[in-house]
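Reviewers asked in the last cycle whether our approach scales beyond single polypeptides. To address this, we selected a multi-component target totalling 564 residues and predicted its structure end to end. The input consisted of the following lines:
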Amino acid sequence: MKKVDTNQWYYSDKVKEHFFKPKNFIVREPKKGEFDAEGQVGNLMCGDIMKMWIKVAPKTEKIKALKWRTWGCATAIASTSVFSVMVTEKGGMKLEDALKITPNEIAARLGGMPPRKFHCSVLAHLAFRDAVKNYREKI
Amino acid sequence: MEKRIYMDHAATTELGARAKKAMEKFWINEFGNPSAIYKEGRKAKMAIESARAEIAKIIGALPEEIIFTAGGTESDNLAIFGVVGAVGLNCLPSSRLYPQAGSDAGSEGKQFKFHIITTKFEHHAVLNPCKFLEKNGVDVTYLDVGKEGIVNPEDVKKALRPNTVFISIMYANNEIGTIQPIAEISEAIKKFRKTNLETGFPLGNPVSKYPLFHTDACQAGGYLDLDVNKLGVDLMTINGSKIYGPKGIGILYARKGIKLQPMFYGGEQENKMRPGTENVPAIIGFAEALKISQKNKNKETKRLTGLRDHFIKRLTAEIPKTFLNGHSSKRLPNNINVSMLGIEGESVVLYLDKMGVACSTGSACASESLEPSHVIMALGKPHEYGHGSLRFTLGKANTKKDVDYVMKILPGIVKKLRNISAINI
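The resulting structure, written as structure tokens, was:
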């Protein structure tokens, strides 16, 4: 019989890490002009709302900062947190490259998620797309 | 070992020491099949029959009115499908029953459509069988429960129809603990039966027993009076796993003379209502657990009511935007259910779990269906109340120290999650 490890957490260790120690979140709504654009996805009914703010280097379109706030469950918080790391690490990704990050890749970076929670990674992807859309409309 | 504070007794309780001890000899020493006629069998038979008699005495029933099942879900299903199945089989719509059926020239004839009544906040073990019947042609009324989570007997009266055959209303709600006025509702139903003899089901029967009234009392066993005559119910579900008894055992009380159609077919156990070799150790453990729970109920109610009110007071006073769900006093003494706005319940449960506390949430994110709690929604509250709901259900091991520990860590968890939350309601 396979031994069951009861110390194993409900989700993956990566989700655990980003849920208990989220990266790049901000604890207040930013001031006007603090970021270049804002994106939002979700609604009260479904139980997840994500907001993202981006700062972009004008010429290179590299992401200098991505901050977020999320109302939602552990995997929603972890998805936003890990996404913010993915697009800002190693000097920051270009907007068009970051847009290519699929929900699958977000989930994979988190060490996988239960199928019913997969939409959380989709939400992170969509919140970012909304932010980029707003950024491009602005400039 | 890591210290844990378990506050999810509405989900399940541990097995009580005395129940465990009572079960012990039936695993190996007295393992006989109660249907066998030799000594081992006779011993097992005697044991389950004395358990049955004991349970019957506690709830004011006759031993033959107790059907052992594999738990609350099965008892609820047997009550619903058993009653509806029996009326459906024995009294199929016919021109004799409903003269207009055949006389409607040219049409297929009016079918006698059965009607059942339940509430919007029943346990899924009642709701889903009702939904299944609804899909298969039975009319179902799902009663509102008001903003306090208590069914109004007047609403039951208004919902009664001549073709109503079955009513199921829980004794105490499993999520918000609100206690339903079962005796008052049963009085209304009894009155209705008398006036329904001429027009109702079965037509013209001078001794109509319909509609039959069932209550799911799974959450009530530890705290409330289970006397079926005082309650006036025809069928009642109780299970072991909420009253410090074993899991996988329950009973359906079915008043003598009620026609039930079994769900399973096999041997002759339980009057053919529930065939299969009896789960002897579980039956013995269940009887013992029920006996102890009912004996201690007043003392435990008194102790936990104080603890519950202390907990609710601190939660709503010390954590901003925290609201109690369900009536503040007409609720089980062990139930605390609050909604904390701006945060999501699953996140709180996982943080509390990390800090050694077990509790539950009605949040959509924590459920397989991704729907927020139908109970919180039935109270007419906005979605965010469901998503932000948290349930603590106390038990015999919980003390004021445990409650105060939760109150030491919970405000910080809520603050942290609100800090990163995208909404501020």
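Chain A has a mean pLDDT of 92. We regard this as preliminary and will revisit it once experimental data from Aim 1 are available.
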